[in-house]
Amino acid sequence: MPLKIGIDAGGSLIKIAYYYEGSLHVKLFSNHMKKQVINWLPSTNTSIYLTGGGSRELQNDLPTSAIVIDEFTAVCKGTNYLLQQEKETLLEKYILVSIGTGTSYFLVSRNNFTRLFGSGIGGGIFMGLGYLLSGKSDYNELVQLSQIGNHKNSDVLVNDIYTSTESPLERNLTAANFGKVQQANEATSADYLASLTQLIGESTILLASQAAMANQTDKIVFTGSTLSYNKPLKKVLSEFQAMLPYEPIFLDNGPYVGAIGAFLS
């Protein structure tokens, strides 16, 4: 039987998934490493399934034929599959939030999906503004800075506004992302990265929770490469459950749902 390989060629990363000897295997490459990807691929007895924005370009570069799968179909199919494999559940209905370079929001059921809308707030803004704020261009370094920073040093909180009067809102909520930057404070680049993560997480959960309420579900599944080893972002996405009716679900292989869905198609 041919080895089936799924490749998700995204805006920043190339994700690969395949089954070998009964186990799921995944690999990750930067999207400027196409030559390494092609060299890694087995030359015989292999079926290749491509998805993502860079799939057509990669297809033209491959020495063998490959089938291109619709990206949204692959992402939703891969997510349903991982929910069964990792969580041992198949949800009747949920909101899927795929955080890649940008972010897509889907309503997914067992046999159907609808893309609801998208947002430009995702991994692209994390890398781009992260570089402007810190001078760092490595994803892992930016995540590490975010983890040691304190967003309260650069964000204006409700507590900063209602200093001596009763607040109508939870005092630890953000009133203005980066609202203290223009002040003469001692915020560090790590604090700015923490604020950036806060901005991305707050904006994402606000949109996702509204989508969930509009579609009568409280289950929100978060996937995408921007969640890879990104504990700070996962924390922000999880910390509003006392205020909003949602249950966040994270998948171990969530960054690879597109590649997984591609070879399952």
Commentary on this structure:
Strands 3-2-1-4-5 form a five-stranded mixed beta sheet. A five-stranded mixed beta sheet has the order 8-7-6-11-12, sandwiched between helices. The chain is globular and about 70 Å long. Helix 2 (55-61) links the parallel strand 4 and strand 5. The longest helix is centred in the last third of the chain and has 26 residues, at 189-214. The protein has two domains: 3-91 and 256-264, Nucleotidyltransferase, domain 5 (2-Layer Sandwich), CATH 3.30.420; 119-251, Nucleotidyltransferase, domain 5, CATH 3.30.420. By secondary structure, the protein is of the alpha/beta class. It has helices spanning 34-40, 55-61, 71-86, 123-134, 139-148, 158-161, 189-214, 231-238, 257-264, and strands at residues 3-9, 13-20, 23-30, 46-51, 67-68, 93-99, 103-109, 113-119, 156-157, 174-176, 219-223, 247-250. It is built from nine helices and twelve strands. Helix 5 (139-148) crosses helix 7 (189-214).
Break the fold down into its secondary structure elements and pairings.
Layout: E1 3-9, E2 13-20, E3 23-30, H1 34-40, E4 46-51, H2 55-61, E5 67-68, H3 71-86, E6 93-99, E7 103-109, E8 113-119, H4 123-134, H5 139-148, E9 156-157, H6 158-161, E10 174-176, H7 189-214, E11 219-223, H8 231-238, E12 247-250, H9 257-264
Helix pairs in contact: 3-9, 4-7, 5-7, 7-8
